[in-house]
Design goal:
The protein is 68% helix and 0% strand. The chain is mainly alpha-helical. The chain is globular, with a radius of gyration of 12 Å. The mean pLDDT is 96.
């Protein structure tokens, strides 16, 4: 897969969040869409603000995915 395609997928998730998930699945597959979405959600929730990241982020990501009906 090209860097350009990965960049485009990341931008889709960055701008549309969980609403862009299906687009990325169709263009890049489940594994890449899952990785990009979970990474984006974690960063958005502050995972980079401390080391180690707040362990509550795991549950918060899970809740967002469940609410959005995304099952990984």
């Amino acid at each position: 897969m090209s860097l350009e395609k990965l960049q485009s997928a990341a931008k889709t998730i960055e701008t549309e969040g969980v609403n862009g998930y299906d687009v990325v699945v169709r263009s890049c597959g489940n594994d890449i869409a899952n990785a990009i979405l979970v990474t984006n959600l974690r960063v958005t929730m502050g995972s980079m603000e401390s080391f180690p990241a707040d362990p509550n982020i795991d549950e918060r990501v899970k809740k967002v995915l469940e609410k959005s009906n995304i099952h990984l």
